[in-house]
Amino acid sequence: MTIELWFLYALGAAIFSAAATILAKIGLKHVDSYFATAIRTAVVVAIAWGMVAIGGGFSNLRYICNETWFFAVISGLAVGLSWIFYFRALAIGDVNQVVPVYKSSTILAMIMAVVFLNEPLNLPMIAAMVLMATGTWLIVDGRLSGGKWLISAVLSAVFMCLVYIFSHIGVRGTDAYLWTALQTTVVLPICVAMVFFRSRVQFPVQKKMPLTKSTWAFLITSGAATAISWIFFYHALQIGNTSHVVPVDRLSTVFTMVTACIFLHERLCAKGIAGVILLTAGTLLPILVA
């Protein structure tokens, strides 16, 4: 099997997405999740526009059509809401709880890609969705009741599913760097507004603990990893089908959970390990039989 370019981009997106999650979890230890999301988003915006400047992409702004602007704005709104709910869930729940629920957006996105983007649906894709759904259930089973993180994680998954679909439509005729910059520029005011709304601008840290250099470092590097992940993802989305790219991006779930066990000392039971195996099988199945 020849490895296609979109697969490498999607795999890179998954790796950096996992790194961003682990770094964010560490950085969120003593920081309000909304404040942390705003800092990370600001880093993503700066990097994205920096890449546009380096590539001379500012001149392309004049050629962006109204349809692209529309999808950039609504996908940016969806990203903002998804990130806010995701990092809220991540602040109060374990990585190995939150991430599988958040990444269940993959299954929704695959279904919506068939319905709204007219992408093909075949038996391997159906089997892949069943494997991923079963794997997710095994990982989170028994830990759903009483979890305050669950509602936020589910909402983050729903909004991220919309991001996948809107971005697939909008990014096709746009440079990936410029699309990332436009989209995250929409996200930043949402995050800042949430910080002001919660009246925690002056006291963003829980228990009034000071923002240490290490906290800043983790938040900034998490934002940088997020920017790289999104750029890779949109490159993959430009040249590959949503129903293929999104499942590969879901490998970040596996990478994140393994890393969380190593660096955050989170435990994964036998059912969780079986779930990870099923998630991996479901992710790779459509690619292997293509």
Characterization of this structure:
With 290 residues, the chain is mainly α. The chain has one domain (5-288). 77% of the residues lie in helices and 0% in strands. The chain contains twelve helices and no strands. The relative contact order is 0.23.
Q: Could you give the topology of this structure?
A:
Layout lengths: L4 H23 L5 H22 L11 H27 L2 H8 L2 H12 L6 H18 L8 H23 L4 H22 L15 H27 L2 H8 L1 H13 L6 H19 L2
Helix pairs in contact: 1-9, 1-10, 1-11, 2-3, 2-8, 2-9, 3-7, 3-8, 4-7, 4-11, 5-7, 5-10, 6-12, 8-9, 11-12
For this entry, give a set of tags:
single chain, about 290 residues, mainly alpha, 12 helices, about 0% strand
Structure, briefly:
With 290 residues, the protein is mostly helical. The chain has twelve helices and no strands. The chain is 77% helix and 0% strand.
Number of domains: 1
Please outline the major beta sheet: none
Pairing-aware structural class of the strands and helices? mainly alpha
The whole-angstrom Rg is: 18 Å
Inertia-based shape: globular
The end-to-end span amounts to 9 Å
